[in-house]
Please model this.
Amino acid sequence: MLTELRVRDLATIADVTLQLGPGLNVLTGETGAGKSMLIDALSLLLGERAAGGSVRPGAGKSVVEGAFEGIAAGTCRCIEELGLDVEDGRVVVRREVTAEGRSRAWVNGSPTTAAVLTELGALLVDLHGQHETQSLLHPEAQRQILDAFAHAEPERDAVAGAHTGLAALRTEERGLVDRRDEVRRRADYLRHVVEEIDTARVRIGEDEALQLEARRLSQAGALVEHAQRVVDALEGEAGNALGALGVAGRALTTLEKVDPSVGDWRELLDSGYANLSELARLAAEYAGSVQEDPERLAFIERRRDLLSRLTGKYGVALEQVLATREQAAGELDLLDTADIDLRALAARRVAAETALQSAAAELTVKRREAAERLTRGVNRLLPQLGLPGGKLTVQLMPLTETGAHGHESVQLNVQLNLGLEAKPLAKVASGGELSRLMLALKVVLVKHDAIATLVFDEVDQGIGGETGAQVGSALAEVAARHQVLVITHLPQIAARADGHLVASKQARGGMATSEVQVLFGEDRVNEIARMLGDAEGDAARRHAQALLRKEPVARR
Model:
């Protein structure tokens, strides 16, 4: 629940802190005292779009902070799925808005975005204020209300899972048909690709080997000449290297006899002689192996031209040419297997369609039964809440195709006065009527609603007297299971509060400033007497005391 809301430098509010407890919390005060600004501040905290024009004159920014404690384990898991941390069931949210309209937000000290705040707010607070687009007007919210009341979560999840599985099969089937048809259109080309590459008998690395061989054949004469020069230099008739090493060896033998310390040179001389002898042998073999072969050279050039054409058409390297061949062959194989695979997919799709229809039918049964119970429950309450001619109906409208949410959409229709045609809720309800309809729903749904904090603004618009007392009772009933915050002008509602706050506005430093304080004892009697129309009169005070003596709704 929301345990504290602090607002600084927002419109007429300089610095106000609301301490809120469990049960029913009411906020009262004269018109224009700043009550609705506090609801605006809470909306801002929950992700509403920021506006720099709301910053208090002379201040650089508005700051709103809220502390939520005792968050249920299921809600904590949902919050963590948003990428936010929850510390011992506690979340502290901070939002800043500069005079230029720039906004920043933090959750438990970590920066976040307004979009995430909106998702977080939907988990923590159900706010019904005169400046809000009511969630009750959205078809999705109406469907969720009915499904929650019906305890239809397993059936709803089964439908969603069946629909997801069916959609995946349909996508796979369409994809396979498209690929098969595309292969059919390209079959002649693909066969040509496979045949051309297979006929060429391409081998990886062949192009490099042919390039080297072509270079050797085209310069065979020069290569033989240079190889022979190497042989002559090493072992020719005069001045050859091996002969010189022989002379050096004999001289070293003489040196060793006189000075044995030069014996280490022998290893160097011997290894040099061995290496040069091997070099002479290899050069001689090379000179004997290289021969001019015009026919072989012509064949190699034709082969290189063929490979060049293939790489020009199918890839810059022979590896890519072969990969193109395998891809083309694989696509052709699809023609042989597609029809078999499509028959198997069709059978699975039909089974999935049957499963979806079955799951959706079970969901529809639950929705129909719950729609009747929800309608009866709400319609019993509406006359007590100042809507004597009000009648709510839950309409299940069949869809042309079963979707992820079942066979039907859900629409709440309302008749506000006798003799009028029932119309969709979004088209007929004013702010006050909508708040009371939501209150009636909350009373009926109180055991099913997971959101801990409910906020009502304008719920008492256009009512008074006994109806106001009934609205107070209904709010107290909801507050037995949820934290409720209500802005009200009705003393009958204020008297049922577990916590009573009053907003007032005074001039401070030449500027209108709103303040909020918690009322107890005689101060509370005085405020309710003021709401009755005579803060100083004895009759109003006795009436206020009588209202406060009413026993609260028992906690459950």
In short: Residues 16 and 346 are 65 Å apart (CA to CA). The two ends are 17 Å apart (CA to CA).
